Amino acid sequence: MFPTQSTTSMLTRYWKSTLPSSKGLGLLTPTSHCRSTKSISTILTASISNCKKHYVDFEKLSGDIAARFQHGMEEINHYAIDNRYGAPLSKIEEELRELIERPVAIPHEDDLVARLINDPISSRAWRSLITNKFCDRMNTAPASDPQMKAGFRRYMIQDFFYLRRLSTFNAERAVTAQDIKTYTDLADRIRRGVGYALDQLSVLTSQLGVPASVVFQTPLAAVTARYLEFLIEEVKKRNWVLSLVALAPCIQSYFTIADNVAKAGTVDKNSDWYKLFVSQHKAFEQSALKQRALLKANAKLWAPYYPVARIMFITACGFEQLFWNLGLIGLSVNLAADTIPQLDNT
């Protein structure tokens, strides 16, 4: 979930040795599909080299930033700069500047994320997520609390399974690819996805002291399996804009929760929770805004399907909340109201 420099350096050296034409390739390299016309002969080179134009500054996301957060930002970057999808990068960046420079109390109707957060129907799911029981307990628990330390490790292990499965899904998609552009794109995403999973594993073993054998012997939680099923099915049956809505609760809540905790001032700054989550994510408001700007610039692609987007957002919020609740297993906490969302088959 949170990359380490040693793991990143190791993978970078490996990729450089196996891909001689790469230039500075690493886990945090921006995706390769620049908004420019390329001949087929340059596609492979482009897929393993730095793109001069990028939307997400991955260098600023380096360090102990959640791999799942980075995975979501990779998806945003991919669609923002690939000329096969939606609004041009210049339009998206214009929307981003407006969100930064002229924040408004009442969100514009084209600002999908803000609408969903404030919508009377979906706002309840959002509020439940950002005030979930696990994060609430972590905000006041001492760093030495054995139950909360174990809960955070339990959450992190399931995050590893999450990242590993998404890489497998992209590999399955690559097997059925019908053109070189799609295949190299997926190969690049698989490479980065496996890197994120390795980063997560490294943090579990080196920073949280969880033996690798324990990680691999831990069963996949039911909520993890259902959450992955939901995300994968949405990618299969929705347009690309709607598939990004399913990632919104993760990206938006990571920043919001960390920012709220930091401002409250009650968290033990010696805890793993603070060091590996709060201290890193509280500063990434602009990353959250970048998702909003991308969706705002492509409003015409989701506007006809707003009711569907709302259902997706509510469902993803529910899964994110249940994901955090994994840290509360074994504690005397009433979780009766937190049930696995029913998947929408429409």
Automatic annotation (TrEMBL):
The protein's name: Heme oxygenase-like protein
UniProt GO BP: thiamine metabolic process
InterPro entries: Haem_Oase-like_multi-hlx (IPR016084), Thiaminase-2/PQQC (IPR004305)
All copies of domain Thiaminase-2/PQQC, residue ranges: 149-325
Membrane-spanning ranges: none
Pfam families, sorted: TENA_THI-4
Signal peptide (residue range): none
SUPFAM superfamilies per the UniProt record, alphabetical: Heme oxygenase-like
Source organism, top-level taxon: Eukaryota
